[in-house]
Amino acid sequence: MSTINEFLSLEDFKAIVFDNKEVTISKVVEERVIESFDFLKLFSANKVIYGVNTGFGPMAQYRIKDEDRLQLQYNLIRSHSSGTGKPLSAINVKSSILARLNTLSLGNSGVHPSVIHLMKEFINRDITPLIFEHGGVGASGDLVQLAHLALTLIGEGEVFYKGERRATKEVFEIENLKPIQVEIREGLSLMNGTSVMTVIGIVNVHNAEKLIDWSIKCSCAINEIVQAYDDHLSAELNNTKRHFGQQEIAKKMRANLLDSKLVRKREDHLYSGENTEDVFKEKVQEYYSLRCVPQILGPVLDTVNTVSEVLENEINSANDNPIVDVKNKHVYHGGNFHGDYISLEMDKLKIVVTKLTMLAERQLNYLLNSKLNEILPPFVNLGTLGFNFGMQGVQFTATSTTAESQMLSNPMYVHSIPNNNDNQDIVSMGTNAAVITAKVIENSFEVLAIELITIVQAIDALEYSGKVSTVTKNMYNDVRKIIPTFKEDQVMYPFVQQVKEYLMK
Questions:
Q1: Which residue in 22, 134, 433, 485 could disulfide with 343, CB within 3.0 to 4.6 Å?
Q2: Distances from the Cα of 141 to the Cαs of 200, 271, 336, 346, 501, in angstroms?
Q3: Residue 56 in contact with residue 188, Cβ under 8 Å?
Q4: b or e along 70-91 (b: 16 or more beta carbons within 10 Å of the residue's beta carbon)?
């Protein structure tokens, strides 16, 4: 069980979302939320406070009558439940609830305690609100996406429950749950923040970490296949570059290749004094896609680590407006809902993931082009040349998918369209940035799946399965359980999908 308390680490966050740990709310948090609620209710009397007794956005110049205040919150929720496109995944929605719960638990929002308790029940009972991908501009936070969350918390809209899309009211009756109490600004507090873009970012980082690991394993396997020299992985070489990521990637590669019977020592071959030919038959250095892996994946790793830090800070921040400060007995108006931090980090993340994908695509091409590798049949074709096609067909898929990711890697951070009667005259597009990054990451898994199938075919072509490292052999065995060695042409799309699922699990 994980307790919402003072700080929610990414590790604790992932344990709740991915390992289905139950959530409980500490006594400290409960008391803090009650204190914030009580203060705001008292403080807001006879004062002009945005979203409590005013309209929203450019309509904030209109005072709301006391008798209409509660209806105002319902109007806000219902009118902004306007998302379109695909529903967000269950993981992303569960994560969004958790992130919003943690933000509201800080006591800077003035919500009724029923809000955090019902959100806790949604997480623990696996009730997933229907939230759509499209709708947020990332300026006043994830207004539209979070409106769909708020809609279910007031007992309306739809949720996914036990594999079915059902009316929230029906599920509440089954689970004996009651809607939240709307007392002051519960609608605005739920909607006004960066929770959705942030958690899509967290899931993206989680998957990007997997991609790095698989890219390292594939790169190591190809270095084995071509019997590369290992000095480009050495600590001595990589420590002359003062970048953590590069050093760490090289370290992981050395660990993966520790018991390989294929990688070679330069001193045993080229430093022995026995090479007298004018033209060397074997390559003195490998192509960049094999030799420069630490330098290419190093920035990817460093970026992922930086993005993780920003996301952890964001889920532990108050990101709505206005901010309730119980300690100083004040309410501050500002723009903590603006999603620039997330938008920028997502753009960074999708760029480095695309670079990882480009590396995989180039490594794939190296394996498939016999004129480059000079050891494998064209397209790693284990059948009859000219009659069979090997991996020729799937290369097209890998190339086109990589190209799509290159196009999608154009930044969202600098793409702002004013809206909301120009009240939101510069926006972050953080939610779009996070969603597009998720697509780029999925594309990368598809390309790596094709590369990995090609790698195991190459290992069989050269009969190296008994010589590769333990890490490579385990990967080889896992893939061979999905797709056996093939000489005759196969319908490849089911196998690519299965290997992709293996990589993503």
A1: 433
A2: 14, 61, 8, 15, 32
A3: yes
A4: bebbbebbbebbebeeebbeeb
Cβ 55 vs Cβ 61: under 8 Å: yes
- Among the listed residues 50, 74, 287, 502, the single catalytic one is 50
The CA radius of gyration of the chain, in Å to the nearest whole number, is: 27
Distance CA 279, CA 40 (A): 82
Give the C-alpha separation, 425 to 489, whole Å. 56
Cα separation, 410 vs 421, in Å, equals 27
Distance between CA atoms of 68 and 358, rounded to whole angstroms? 56
For the chain, domains (ranges, CATH) are: 2-193 (1.10.275.10), 202-504 (1.20.200.10)
Listed residue (362, 219, 240) closest to 301, CA to CA? 219
Interval 339-366: pLDDT, tens = 899 999 999 999 999 999 999 999 999 9
**Which residues, at least 6 apart from 383, have a Cβ–Cβ distance to it below 8 Å?**
390, 487, 488, 489
Burial of 150 from C-beta contacts in 10 A (0-12 / 13-18 / 19+):
buried
Query: How many whole angstroms from its chain centre is CA 493?
Result: 25
pLDDT digits (tens, 9 = 90+) for 24-59: 999 999 999 999 999 999 998 888 888 888 888 778
Tell me if residue 366 is catalytic: no
